[in-house]
Specification:
TIM Barrel; 6-stranded parallel sheet; globular; binds FE2/S2 (inorganic) cluster; 3-stranded parallel sheet; alpha/beta; binds S-adenosylmethionine
Length: 344
């Protein structure tokens, strides 16, 4: 298929045969058409609306040891922190006054936050901010734990699958972690009734185009409400310190492909995209993304949640500068809205 036929077929059918997906992933010839079509589809479903999520990175302790991640357990150069319930609630209060109607509580897998503690925090946020969505992103848990958080008032859950290929998964994670359990978590979350977000890093070490195809097929099966992707970015204190960063161009291409596959999905222009290029998140919006997740954590801990090097967190992109953010989004051709921003 020529580039135009590839893009037209994807837009019409929301999927492609394997060889066509591989061809589309590997060429830049279709990019201009792909981005234009993705933008047309996002405008047809969501208009120019960009939803904001206030990201609260509440702990950088983690019991896991993913080879790519800067806050992995064995990185002893990290200055570890935890936010108290009061600190988390004051982040939410600040976010609410800035117009945020979704709070994302993200952290490493930190056993300090037992189900009881986490449920206490979630139900307190639910009570104080009844009009807001609460998103959790705290890793792999039992179905019973996910159910408890849901019952306490959480609505959404972000858990990237990272890669849907078994062999590739095993090259990114220690043997104590498995793709099987990751997938089990995602299907459990969906069944419980969460709006679920999955996704992968683009250009993670050893990733092949076939791996990305496998990711697309997995997403077709899971049908998540949210899909978070961003370039892999290297961190000096991980086993992958000598590996190259993922590519901006391939991330943008995948964003557009995902928008055409899942017209209604909530797709963030991620922090990693804004880190790899100063205009990365604006480019992401123009390639089909419709969500931005500014940092709402207390300023003194932001640098400590360093998943990868040079992570943006303190400048105009931070949550407290709503007017800077609004201007950037408007310059890209869209507008931020004060809304929970549920999936349509
Ligand atoms: N512990 C939770 C979990 O595992 O889902 C949430 C925190 S985890 C650090 C959030 C995401 O950061 C991961 O799903 C991964 O995709 C991303 N991440 C970690 N290290 C990264 C890196 N070096 N480059 C890009 N993204 C990275
Ligand atoms: Fe914390 Fe991977 S290192 S979840």
């Amino acid at each position: 298929m020529d580039p135009k036929t590839l893009v037209d077929t994807l837009a019409a059918e929301h999927t492609l045969p394997d060889d066509a997906f591989l061809a589309l992933l590997e060429t830049d010839e279709a990019d201009a058409l792909l981005f234009a079509e993705a933008d047309r589809v996002r405008r047809a479903v969501y208009g120019t609306d960009v939803y904001l999520r206030g990201l609260i990175e509440f702990t950088n302790f983690c019991k896991n040891n993913c080879y790519y991640c800067g806050i992995r357990r064995d990185n002893h150069n990290v200055s570890r922190y935890r936010l108290s319930e009061e600190e988390i609630l004051s982040c939410c209060a600040e976010g609410y006054s800035l117009g945020y109607r979704t709070f994302v509580l993200q952290g490493g897998e930190d056993p300090y936050y037992t189900d009881e503690r986490l449920c206490g925090i979630v139900s307190e946020i639910r009570e104080r901010f009844p009009s807001c969505a609460i998103t959790l992103s705290v890793g792999e848990k039992s179905r019973a734990s996910y159910q408890a958080y849901f019952d306490a008032g959480a609505n959404r859950y972000l858990l990237r699958h990272e890669t849907a290929d078994e062999e590739h998964y095993a090259r990114l994670h220690p043997a104590s972690m498995s793709l099987e359990n990751r997938k089990r978590c995602l299907y459990d979350l969906k069944q419980i009734g969460y709006q679920v977000g999955a996704g992968m890093m683009v250009g993670s070490p050893y990733q092949t185009t076939e791996n990305l195809l496998c990711d697309l097929r997995f997403l077709e099966d899971l049908r998540p409400h949210m899909i978070g992707i961003g370039p892999y970015l290297t961190h000096r204190d991980t086993p992958f310190r000598d590996m190259p960063n993922g590519s901006l161009a391939l991330t943008l291409r995948l964003l557009a492909i995902l928008r055409l596959m899942f017209p209604r999905a909530l797709i963030p222009a991620t922090t990693a995209l804004g880190t790899i290029h100063p205009q990365g998140r604006e480019m992401g919006l123009r390639a089909g993304a419709n969500v931005i997740m500014p940092n709402l954590s207390p300023k003194d801990v932001r640098r400590k949640y360093e998943l990868y090097e040079n992570k943006i967190c303190t400048g105009e992109e931070a949550a407290e500068c709503r007017s800077c953010l609004d201007r950037r989004v408007e310059a890209a051709g869209y507008r931020t809205v004060v809304s929970r921003g549920d999936a349509k």
